[in-house]
Predict the structure.
Amino acid sequence: MSKNFEVVIGLEVHVQLNTKTKIFCSCPTSFGDEPNVNTCPTCLGLPGALPVMNKEAVKKAVMLGKAINATVNKKSTFERKNYFYPDLPKGYQISQFVVPIVEGGELFVNVKDKEKRIGVTRAHLEEDAGKNMHESGYSKVDLNRAGTPLLEIVSEPDMRSSDEAVAYLKKLHSIVRYLKISDANMQEGSFRCDANVSIRPRGQEEFGTRVEIKNLNSFRHIKQAIEYEVERQIEAYEDDEYEKEVVQETRLFDVKSGETKSMRGKEESADYRYFPEPDLLTLEVPEEFFGVEIPELPDAKKQRYMDEFKLKEYDAGVLTSEPELAEFFEELVENGCEPVMANNWLAVELLGRLNKAGLHIENSPVKSDKLATLIIRIKEAVISGAGGKKVLDLLMEEDIEVDAAIEKLGLKQVSDESAIEKIIDEVLSANADKVEEYKNGKDKLFGFFVGQVMKASRGKANPQVANKLLKEKLK
Ligand code: ADP
Ligand code: MG
Ligand code: ZN
Protein backbone atom coordinates (compact mmCIF):
# COMPACT_ATOMS: atom_id res chain seq x y z
CA MET A 1 0.00 0.00 0.00
CA SER A 2 1.30 3.43 -0.85
CA LYS A 3 1.90 6.09 1.74
CA ASN A 4 0.69 8.73 -0.71
CA PHE A 5 -2.90 7.53 -0.65
CA GLU A 6 -5.59 7.16 1.95
CA VAL A 7 -7.93 4.18 1.80
CA VAL A 8 -11.65 4.74 2.49
CA ILE A 9 -13.94 1.82 3.30
CA GLY A 10 -17.64 1.59 4.15
CA LEU A 11 -19.35 -1.74 4.77
CA GLU A 12 -22.85 -3.04 4.22
CA VAL A 13 -23.61 -6.19 6.20
CA HIS A 14 -26.64 -8.41 5.68
CA VAL A 15 -27.57 -10.31 8.82
CA GLN A 16 -30.14 -13.07 8.51
CA LEU A 17 -32.37 -12.80 11.59
CA ASN A 18 -33.09 -16.11 13.30
CA THR A 19 -36.86 -15.82 13.53
CA LYS A 20 -38.79 -19.10 13.25
CA THR A 21 -40.85 -17.83 10.32
CA LYS A 22 -40.27 -15.50 7.37
CA ILE A 23 -40.61 -11.73 7.53
CA PHE A 24 -44.02 -11.40 5.83
CA CYS A 25 -45.53 -14.91 5.99
CA SER A 26 -45.55 -17.94 8.28
CA CYS A 27 -43.27 -20.21 6.23
CA PRO A 28 -40.34 -21.67 8.22
CA THR A 29 -36.87 -20.19 7.75
CA SER A 30 -35.00 -23.49 8.15
CA PHE A 31 -31.81 -24.04 6.12
CA GLY A 32 -31.00 -27.06 3.96
CA ASP A 33 -34.51 -28.40 3.22
CA GLU A 34 -35.70 -29.79 -0.14
CA PRO A 35 -35.95 -26.90 -2.63
CA ASN A 36 -39.19 -24.89 -2.66
CA VAL A 37 -40.92 -26.74 0.18
CA ASN A 38 -40.96 -23.72 2.50
CA THR A 39 -43.08 -21.46 0.30
CA CYS A 40 -46.60 -20.00 0.14
CA PRO A 41 -48.46 -17.54 -2.09
CA THR A 42 -46.89 -14.57 -0.25
CA CYS A 43 -43.23 -15.54 -0.56
CA LEU A 44 -43.76 -16.98 -4.05
CA GLY A 45 -44.99 -13.52 -5.03
CA LEU A 46 -48.36 -14.68 -6.36
CA PRO A 47 -50.72 -11.83 -7.27
CA GLY A 48 -53.10 -10.79 -4.50
CA ALA A 49 -51.18 -12.38 -1.61
CA LEU A 50 -50.62 -9.92 1.24
CA PRO A 51 -47.55 -9.50 3.48
CA VAL A 52 -47.94 -9.39 7.28
CA MET A 53 -45.08 -8.01 9.38
CA ASN A 54 -43.23 -10.47 11.68
CA LYS A 55 -43.10 -8.94 15.17
CA GLU A 56 -40.03 -10.93 16.26
CA ALA A 57 -37.98 -9.49 13.39
CA VAL A 58 -38.87 -5.99 14.63
CA LYS A 59 -37.78 -6.88 18.17
CA LYS A 60 -34.44 -8.21 16.96
CA ALA A 61 -33.80 -5.04 14.94
CA VAL A 62 -34.53 -2.97 18.07
CA MET A 63 -32.03 -5.05 20.06
CA LEU A 64 -29.31 -4.34 17.52
CA GLY A 65 -30.19 -0.65 17.63
CA LYS A 66 -29.77 -0.56 21.41
CA ALA A 67 -26.51 -2.50 21.26
CA ILE A 68 -24.88 0.05 18.94
CA ASN A 69 -26.20 3.17 20.71
CA ALA A 70 -28.44 4.05 17.81
CA THR A 71 -31.78 5.80 17.54
CA VAL A 72 -34.66 3.36 17.16
CA ASN A 73 -37.34 5.12 15.15
CA LYS A 74 -40.80 4.84 16.63
CA LYS A 75 -42.14 4.93 13.06
CA SER A 76 -40.44 3.65 9.92
CA THR A 77 -41.51 2.85 6.38
CA PHE A 78 -41.36 0.05 3.83
CA GLU A 79 -40.71 0.65 0.16
CA ARG A 80 -40.54 -1.49 -2.95
CA LYS A 81 -37.13 -1.78 -4.55
CA ASN A 82 -37.79 -2.80 -8.15
CA TYR A 83 -35.47 -5.02 -10.12
CA PHE A 84 -35.64 -8.19 -12.13
CA TYR A 85 -33.90 -11.38 -11.15
CA PRO A 86 -35.11 -15.00 -11.49
CA ASP A 87 -34.88 -15.55 -7.73
CA LEU A 88 -37.19 -12.55 -7.12
CA PRO A 89 -40.55 -13.58 -8.61
CA LYS A 90 -42.40 -10.44 -7.46
CA GLY A 91 -40.08 -8.22 -9.48
CA TYR A 92 -39.39 -6.14 -6.38
CA GLN A 93 -37.93 -6.54 -2.90
CA ILE A 94 -39.69 -5.07 0.12
CA SER A 95 -37.10 -2.99 1.99
CA GLN A 96 -36.86 0.14 4.12
CA PHE A 97 -35.60 3.13 2.19
CA VAL A 98 -37.06 6.46 3.31
CA VAL A 99 -37.09 5.89 7.09
CA PRO A 100 -35.18 2.85 8.43
CA ILE A 101 -35.99 1.34 11.82
CA VAL A 102 -32.48 2.05 13.19
CA GLU A 103 -30.36 5.15 12.54
CA GLY A 104 -27.13 6.75 13.73
CA GLY A 105 -25.23 4.13 15.76
CA GLU A 106 -21.59 3.44 16.51
CA LEU A 107 -19.09 0.66 17.10
CA PHE A 108 -15.65 0.75 18.66
CA VAL A 109 -12.75 -1.21 17.24
CA ASN A 110 -9.25 -1.74 18.47
CA VAL A 111 -6.49 -1.80 15.86
CA LYS A 112 -2.80 -1.63 16.77
CA ASP A 113 -3.69 -0.71 20.37
CA LYS A 114 -5.71 2.28 19.27
CA GLU A 115 -9.44 2.54 19.88
CA LYS A 116 -11.46 3.97 17.03
CA ARG A 117 -15.13 4.85 16.60
CA ILE A 118 -16.88 3.69 13.44
CA GLY A 119 -20.24 5.28 12.70
CA VAL A 120 -23.23 3.18 11.66
CA THR A 121 -25.46 5.13 9.29
CA ARG A 122 -28.51 2.91 9.48
CA ALA A 123 -29.92 -0.58 9.87
CA HIS A 124 -33.05 -1.53 8.01
CA LEU A 125 -35.33 -4.54 7.66
CA GLU A 126 -35.88 -6.25 4.33
CA GLU A 127 -36.70 -9.61 2.79
CA ASP A 128 -34.09 -11.91 1.29
CA ALA A 129 -34.39 -13.22 -2.27
CA GLY A 130 -34.33 -16.90 -3.26
CA LYS A 131 -31.33 -18.71 -4.67
CA ASN A 132 -30.38 -19.45 -8.27
CA MET A 133 -28.65 -22.78 -8.61
CA HIS A 134 -26.55 -23.22 -11.70
CA GLU A 135 -25.99 -26.74 -12.98
CA SER A 136 -24.35 -27.93 -16.16
CA GLY A 137 -26.39 -26.48 -18.97
CA TYR A 138 -29.31 -25.05 -17.02
CA SER A 139 -30.28 -23.11 -13.91
CA LYS A 140 -32.89 -23.75 -11.27
CA VAL A 141 -34.50 -21.50 -8.66
CA ASP A 142 -35.01 -22.40 -4.99
CA LEU A 143 -37.38 -20.03 -3.20
CA ASN A 144 -37.00 -21.43 0.33
CA ARG A 145 -34.89 -18.43 1.27
CA ALA A 146 -37.25 -15.90 -0.36
CA GLY A 147 -38.79 -13.80 2.41
CA THR A 148 -36.22 -14.64 5.10
CA PRO A 149 -35.80 -11.56 7.31
CA LEU A 150 -32.60 -9.57 6.84
CA LEU A 151 -31.23 -6.68 8.81
CA GLU A 152 -28.93 -4.62 6.58
CA ILE A 153 -26.42 -2.65 8.62
CA VAL A 154 -24.69 0.18 6.72
CA SER A 155 -21.55 1.82 8.08
CA GLU A 156 -20.23 5.32 7.49
CA PRO A 157 -17.16 5.44 5.21
CA ASP A 158 -15.03 5.62 8.37
CA MET A 159 -12.55 2.77 7.93
CA ARG A 160 -9.05 3.51 6.67
CA SER A 161 -7.48 0.06 6.24
CA SER A 162 -8.40 -3.57 5.63
CA ASP A 163 -7.46 -4.27 9.26
CA GLU A 164 -10.01 -1.73 10.49
CA ALA A 165 -12.64 -3.21 8.19
CA VAL A 166 -12.01 -6.72 9.53
CA ALA A 167 -12.01 -5.45 13.13
CA TYR A 168 -15.36 -3.73 12.53
CA LEU A 169 -16.84 -6.88 11.04
CA LYS A 170 -15.55 -9.07 13.84
CA LYS A 171 -16.99 -6.71 16.43
CA LEU A 172 -20.36 -6.58 14.67
CA HIS A 173 -20.33 -10.38 14.26
CA SER A 174 -19.61 -10.80 17.94
CA ILE A 175 -22.39 -8.37 18.99
CA VAL A 176 -24.93 -10.12 16.77
CA ARG A 177 -23.96 -13.47 18.29
CA TYR A 178 -24.13 -12.12 21.86
CA LEU A 179 -27.61 -10.73 21.11
CA LYS A 180 -28.54 -14.14 19.65
CA ILE A 181 -30.52 -12.43 16.89
CA SER A 182 -28.78 -14.48 14.18
CA ASP A 183 -26.62 -17.57 14.02
CA ALA A 184 -24.33 -15.32 11.91
CA ASN A 185 -22.93 -18.37 10.14
CA MET A 186 -20.78 -16.92 7.38
CA GLN A 187 -20.49 -20.11 5.30
CA GLU A 188 -24.26 -20.50 5.18
CA GLY A 189 -24.65 -16.84 4.25
CA SER A 190 -26.36 -15.65 7.44
CA PHE A 191 -23.75 -12.88 7.81
CA ARG A 192 -22.52 -11.49 4.49
CA CYS A 193 -20.70 -8.35 3.65
CA ASP A 194 -20.39 -5.92 0.72
CA ALA A 195 -17.27 -3.76 0.92
CA ASN A 196 -17.20 -0.27 -0.61
CA VAL A 197 -13.64 0.75 -1.34
CA SER A 198 -12.05 3.93 -2.65
CA ILE A 199 -8.75 5.76 -2.43
CA ARG A 200 -7.79 9.43 -2.39
CA PRO A 201 -4.45 11.23 -2.44
CA ARG A 202 -3.48 12.16 1.11
CA GLY A 203 -4.73 15.63 1.97
CA GLN A 204 -7.57 15.57 -0.54
CA GLU A 205 -10.91 16.07 1.17
CA GLU A 206 -13.18 14.80 -1.56
CA PHE A 207 -13.77 11.05 -1.66
CA GLY A 208 -12.61 9.02 -4.64
CA THR A 209 -14.87 6.82 -6.76
CA ARG A 210 -16.14 3.84 -4.81
CA VAL A 211 -16.26 0.29 -6.02
CA GLU A 212 -18.57 -2.18 -4.30
CA ILE A 213 -17.32 -5.75 -3.79
CA LYS A 214 -20.30 -8.04 -3.29
CA ASN A 215 -21.04 -11.00 -1.04
CA LEU A 216 -17.85 -11.60 0.84
CA ASN A 217 -18.35 -14.44 3.27
CA SER A 218 -15.16 -14.86 5.28
CA PHE A 219 -12.93 -12.44 7.18
CA ARG A 220 -9.95 -13.64 5.19
CA HIS A 221 -11.63 -13.00 1.83
CA ILE A 222 -12.72 -9.55 2.92
CA LYS A 223 -9.16 -8.61 3.80
CA GLN A 224 -7.78 -10.07 0.56
CA ALA A 225 -10.47 -8.44 -1.59
CA ILE A 226 -9.95 -4.98 -0.07
CA GLU A 227 -6.17 -5.20 -0.39
CA TYR A 228 -6.36 -6.32 -4.00
CA GLU A 229 -8.81 -3.54 -4.82
CA VAL A 230 -6.71 -0.86 -3.13
CA GLU A 231 -3.64 -1.92 -5.10
CA ARG A 232 -5.63 -1.92 -8.34
CA GLN A 233 -6.95 1.59 -7.73
CA ILE A 234 -3.56 2.99 -6.72
CA GLU A 235 -1.90 1.50 -9.79
CA ALA A 236 -4.60 2.97 -12.01
CA TYR A 237 -4.06 6.37 -10.39
CA GLU A 238 -0.31 6.25 -10.79
CA ASP A 239 -0.63 5.12 -14.42
CA ASP A 240 -2.96 8.04 -15.12
CA GLU A 241 -5.76 5.57 -15.88
CA TYR A 242 -7.89 6.31 -12.80
CA GLU A 243 -10.87 7.85 -14.63
CA LYS A 244 -10.96 4.98 -17.06
CA GLU A 245 -10.34 2.03 -14.77
CA VAL A 246 -11.94 3.06 -11.51
CA VAL A 247 -15.63 3.52 -12.19
CA GLN A 248 -18.54 3.18 -9.82
CA GLU A 249 -19.40 -0.46 -10.28
CA THR A 250 -20.08 -3.75 -8.57
CA ARG A 251 -17.21 -6.21 -8.53
CA LEU A 252 -16.92 -9.83 -7.43
CA PHE A 253 -14.03 -11.35 -5.53
CA ASP A 254 -12.63 -14.45 -7.19
CA VAL A 255 -11.41 -16.71 -4.42
CA LYS A 256 -9.13 -18.75 -6.71
CA SER A 257 -7.15 -15.89 -8.25
CA GLY A 258 -7.51 -13.50 -5.31
CA GLU A 259 -8.64 -10.77 -7.73
CA THR A 260 -11.76 -8.62 -7.95
CA LYS A 261 -13.58 -8.66 -11.30
CA SER A 262 -16.15 -6.33 -12.77
CA MET A 263 -19.69 -7.73 -12.50
CA ARG A 264 -21.96 -4.89 -13.51
CA GLY A 265 -22.25 -1.12 -13.50
CA LYS A 266 -23.44 0.24 -10.18
CA GLU A 267 -27.12 1.09 -9.97
CA GLU A 268 -28.04 4.45 -8.50
CA SER A 269 -30.96 4.34 -6.10
CA ALA A 270 -33.05 6.11 -8.76
CA ASP A 271 -32.69 3.00 -10.94
CA TYR A 272 -34.73 1.01 -8.45
CA ARG A 273 -37.79 3.28 -8.69
CA TYR A 274 -38.44 3.00 -4.97
CA PHE A 275 -42.03 3.71 -3.99
CA PRO A 276 -44.04 3.13 -0.80
CA GLU A 277 -45.15 -0.48 -0.25
CA PRO A 278 -48.96 -0.15 -0.51
CA ASP A 279 -49.67 -3.48 1.21
CA LEU A 280 -47.97 -2.59 4.51
CA LEU A 281 -48.76 0.08 7.08
CA THR A 282 -46.16 2.37 8.56
CA LEU A 283 -44.13 0.22 10.95
CA GLU A 284 -44.77 1.28 14.54
CA VAL A 285 -42.43 -0.22 17.12
CA PRO A 286 -44.52 -1.51 20.06
CA GLU A 287 -43.86 0.49 23.23
CA GLU A 288 -42.67 -2.55 25.20
CA PHE A 289 -39.90 -3.21 22.66
CA PHE A 290 -38.13 -0.01 23.66
CA GLY A 291 -37.50 -1.58 27.08
CA VAL A 292 -36.22 -4.90 25.71
CA GLU A 293 -33.31 -6.26 27.76
CA ILE A 294 -30.02 -6.88 25.99
CA PRO A 295 -27.25 -9.05 27.46
CA GLU A 296 -23.86 -7.80 28.60
CA LEU A 297 -21.92 -7.11 25.39
CA PRO A 298 -18.30 -8.03 24.57
CA ASP A 299 -16.71 -4.64 25.40
CA ALA A 300 -18.38 -4.37 28.81
CA LYS A 301 -17.67 -8.01 29.57
CA LYS A 302 -14.01 -7.61 28.66
CA GLN A 303 -13.66 -4.63 31.01
CA ARG A 304 -15.40 -6.56 33.79
CA TYR A 305 -13.05 -9.54 33.35
CA MET A 306 -10.10 -7.16 33.73
CA ASP A 307 -11.52 -5.43 36.82
CA GLU A 308 -13.17 -8.33 38.60
CA PHE A 309 -10.89 -11.23 37.66
CA LYS A 310 -7.64 -9.30 37.18
CA LEU A 311 -7.15 -10.77 33.71
CA LYS A 312 -4.76 -9.15 31.23
CA GLU A 313 -6.42 -7.14 28.47
CA TYR A 314 -5.36 -9.62 25.79
CA ASP A 315 -6.74 -12.62 27.71
CA ALA A 316 -10.00 -10.84 28.54
CA GLY A 317 -10.33 -9.98 24.83
CA VAL A 318 -9.89 -13.60 23.74
CA LEU A 319 -12.36 -14.96 26.30
CA THR A 320 -15.06 -12.44 25.40
CA SER A 321 -14.64 -12.68 21.62
CA GLU A 322 -17.36 -15.31 21.47
CA PRO A 323 -20.34 -15.74 23.77
CA GLU A 324 -19.84 -19.53 24.09
CA LEU A 325 -16.25 -19.03 25.22
CA ALA A 326 -17.24 -16.40 27.80
CA GLU A 327 -20.00 -18.67 29.10
CA PHE A 328 -17.57 -21.57 29.41
CA PHE A 329 -15.13 -19.39 31.32
CA GLU A 330 -17.81 -18.10 33.69
CA GLU A 331 -18.92 -21.68 34.41
CA LEU A 332 -15.34 -22.56 35.39
CA VAL A 333 -15.25 -19.66 37.83
CA GLU A 334 -18.69 -20.56 39.23
CA ASN A 335 -17.39 -24.08 39.79
CA GLY A 336 -14.68 -22.70 42.04
CA CYS A 337 -11.70 -22.26 39.71
CA GLU A 338 -9.33 -19.40 40.26
CA PRO A 339 -9.85 -17.03 37.23
CA VAL A 340 -6.24 -16.70 36.02
CA MET A 341 -5.79 -20.46 36.19
CA ALA A 342 -9.18 -21.01 34.51
CA ASN A 343 -8.14 -18.69 31.67
CA ASN A 344 -4.92 -20.58 31.13
CA TRP A 345 -6.51 -24.02 31.06
CA LEU A 346 -9.34 -22.86 28.82
CA ALA A 347 -7.68 -20.42 26.40
CA VAL A 348 -4.32 -22.17 26.07
CA GLU A 349 -4.76 -25.86 26.87
CA LEU A 350 -8.34 -26.68 25.87
CA LEU A 351 -8.61 -24.27 22.91
CA GLY A 352 -5.24 -25.46 21.62
CA ARG A 353 -6.45 -29.06 21.64
CA LEU A 354 -9.82 -28.15 20.09
CA ASN A 355 -8.06 -26.24 17.31
CA LYS A 356 -5.89 -29.22 16.52
CA ALA A 357 -8.96 -31.45 16.39
CA GLY A 358 -10.79 -28.93 14.19
CA LEU A 359 -13.48 -28.44 16.84
CA HIS A 360 -15.25 -25.37 18.20
CA ILE A 361 -15.92 -24.72 21.89
CA GLU A 362 -19.63 -25.68 21.52
CA ASN A 363 -18.62 -29.19 20.42
CA SER A 364 -15.86 -29.64 22.95
CA PRO A 365 -15.80 -33.22 24.23
CA VAL A 366 -14.62 -31.77 27.56
CA LYS A 367 -17.41 -29.70 29.14
CA SER A 368 -16.88 -26.96 31.71
CA ASP A 369 -17.70 -29.12 34.77
CA LYS A 370 -15.02 -31.62 33.78
CA LEU A 371 -12.38 -29.00 33.08
CA ALA A 372 -13.26 -27.36 36.40
CA THR A 373 -12.66 -30.63 38.26
CA LEU A 374 -9.32 -31.04 36.52
CA ILE A 375 -8.24 -27.48 37.40
CA ILE A 376 -9.25 -28.04 41.03
CA ARG A 377 -7.24 -31.30 41.22
CA ILE A 378 -4.19 -29.40 40.04
CA LYS A 379 -4.84 -26.62 42.55
CA GLU A 380 -5.19 -29.24 45.31
CA ALA A 381 -1.86 -30.72 44.12
CA VAL A 382 -3.47 -34.11 43.56
CA ILE A 383 -1.68 -33.96 40.21
CA SER A 384 0.99 -31.67 38.82
CA GLY A 385 0.45 -29.19 36.00
CA ALA A 386 2.33 -31.48 33.63
CA GLY A 387 0.14 -34.37 34.78
CA GLY A 388 -2.94 -32.22 34.16
CA LYS A 389 -1.99 -31.86 30.49
CA LYS A 390 -1.80 -35.64 30.12
CA VAL A 391 -5.20 -36.01 31.81
CA LEU A 392 -6.68 -33.42 29.43
CA ASP A 393 -5.28 -35.34 26.44
CA LEU A 394 -7.10 -38.44 27.68
CA LEU A 395 -10.35 -36.53 28.36
CA MET A 396 -10.28 -35.31 24.74
CA GLU A 397 -10.14 -38.93 23.55
CA GLU A 398 -12.31 -40.80 26.03
CA ASP A 399 -15.54 -40.17 27.90
CA ILE A 400 -14.01 -40.72 31.32
CA GLU A 401 -14.30 -38.90 34.66
CA VAL A 402 -11.34 -36.79 35.79
CA ASP A 403 -10.50 -38.87 38.87
CA ALA A 404 -10.76 -42.11 36.91
CA ALA A 405 -8.42 -40.62 34.29
CA ILE A 406 -5.88 -39.65 36.97
CA GLU A 407 -6.08 -43.19 38.35
CA LYS A 408 -5.78 -44.78 34.91
CA LEU A 409 -2.69 -42.75 34.05
CA GLY A 410 -1.19 -43.29 37.51
CA LEU A 411 -0.57 -39.58 37.93
CA LYS A 412 -1.64 -39.07 41.53
CA GLN A 413 1.01 -37.08 43.36
CA VAL A 414 2.31 -38.09 46.78
CA SER A 415 1.76 -35.20 49.18
CA ASP A 416 1.96 -37.19 52.38
CA GLU A 417 4.87 -35.66 54.31
CA SER A 418 6.08 -38.81 56.05
CA ALA A 419 6.26 -40.72 52.75
CA ILE A 420 8.26 -37.94 51.12
CA GLU A 421 10.42 -37.53 54.19
CA LYS A 422 11.40 -41.20 53.94
CA ILE A 423 12.50 -40.73 50.33
CA ILE A 424 14.45 -37.60 51.25
CA ASP A 425 16.29 -39.42 54.03
CA GLU A 426 17.29 -42.15 51.60
CA VAL A 427 18.48 -39.65 49.01
CA LEU A 428 20.49 -37.65 51.53
CA SER A 429 22.21 -40.67 53.07
CA ALA A 430 23.10 -42.03 49.64
CA ASN A 431 24.70 -38.66 48.80
CA ALA A 432 26.42 -37.81 52.06
CA ASP A 433 29.42 -36.23 50.23
CA LYS A 434 27.15 -33.82 48.33
CA VAL A 435 25.33 -32.92 51.53
CA GLU A 436 28.71 -31.97 52.99
CA GLU A 437 29.53 -29.77 49.95
CA TYR A 438 26.11 -28.13 50.16
CA LYS A 439 26.60 -27.30 53.81
CA ASN A 440 29.98 -25.79 52.91
CA GLY A 441 28.24 -23.29 50.64
CA LYS A 442 27.62 -25.04 47.32
CA ASP A 443 23.97 -23.82 47.15
CA LYS A 444 23.56 -24.96 43.58
CA LEU A 445 23.29 -28.57 44.77
CA PHE A 446 19.77 -27.93 46.08
CA GLY A 447 18.36 -28.53 42.63
CA PHE A 448 20.27 -31.79 42.43
CA PHE A 449 18.63 -33.04 45.66
CA VAL A 450 15.15 -32.05 44.39
CA GLY A 451 15.86 -33.92 41.18
CA GLN A 452 16.97 -37.03 43.04
CA VAL A 453 13.87 -36.99 45.25
CA MET A 454 11.58 -36.63 42.24
CA LYS A 455 13.43 -39.45 40.49
CA ALA A 456 13.22 -41.75 43.51
CA SER A 457 9.47 -41.07 43.76
CA ARG A 458 9.13 -41.71 40.01
CA GLY A 459 7.90 -38.17 39.49
CA LYS A 460 5.03 -38.44 41.92
CA ALA A 461 6.29 -36.48 44.92
CA ASN A 462 4.48 -33.19 45.27
CA PRO A 463 7.31 -30.77 44.35
CA GLN A 464 6.16 -28.06 46.80
CA VAL A 465 6.18 -30.50 49.70
CA ALA A 466 9.51 -32.00 48.60
CA ASN A 467 11.05 -28.52 48.41
CA LYS A 468 9.80 -27.51 51.81
CA LEU A 469 10.97 -30.69 53.54
CA LEU A 470 14.37 -30.65 51.83
CA LYS A 471 14.96 -27.08 52.98
CA GLU A 472 14.19 -28.08 56.55
CA LYS A 473 16.44 -31.13 56.42
CA LEU A 474 19.40 -29.28 54.91
CA LYS A 475 19.31 -26.31 57.26
P1 ADP B 1 -25.82 1.40 -2.07
O1 ADP B 1 -27.01 0.60 -1.65
O2 ADP B 1 -25.96 2.18 -3.29
O3 ADP B 1 -24.58 0.58 -2.08
P2 ADP B 1 -25.67 2.45 0.56
O4 ADP B 1 -25.96 3.83 1.04
O5 ADP B 1 -26.50 1.32 1.00
O6 ADP B 1 -25.61 2.54 -1.00
O7 ADP B 1 -24.19 2.08 0.97
C1 ADP B 1 -23.14 2.84 0.63
C2 ADP B 1 -21.94 2.36 1.39
O8 ADP B 1 -20.77 2.86 0.76
C3 ADP B 1 -21.88 2.85 2.82
O9 ADP B 1 -21.35 1.87 3.66
C4 ADP B 1 -20.92 4.04 2.73
O10 ADP B 1 -20.22 4.26 3.94
C5 ADP B 1 -19.96 3.59 1.66
N1 ADP B 1 -19.34 4.67 0.89
C6 ADP B 1 -19.92 5.76 0.38
N2 ADP B 1 -19.01 6.50 -0.30
C7 ADP B 1 -17.84 5.85 -0.24
C8 ADP B 1 -16.52 6.08 -0.75
N3 ADP B 1 -16.24 7.12 -1.52
N4 ADP B 1 -15.56 5.16 -0.49
C9 ADP B 1 -15.83 4.08 0.24
N5 ADP B 1 -17.04 3.81 0.77
C10 ADP B 1 -18.03 4.68 0.52
MG1 MG C 1 -24.97 -1.45 -1.55
ZN1 ZN D 1 -44.33 -17.98 2.64
In short: The pocket of magnesium ion (ligand 2) is lined by residues 12, 194, 212 (CB under 6 Å). Residues 298-409 form one domain.
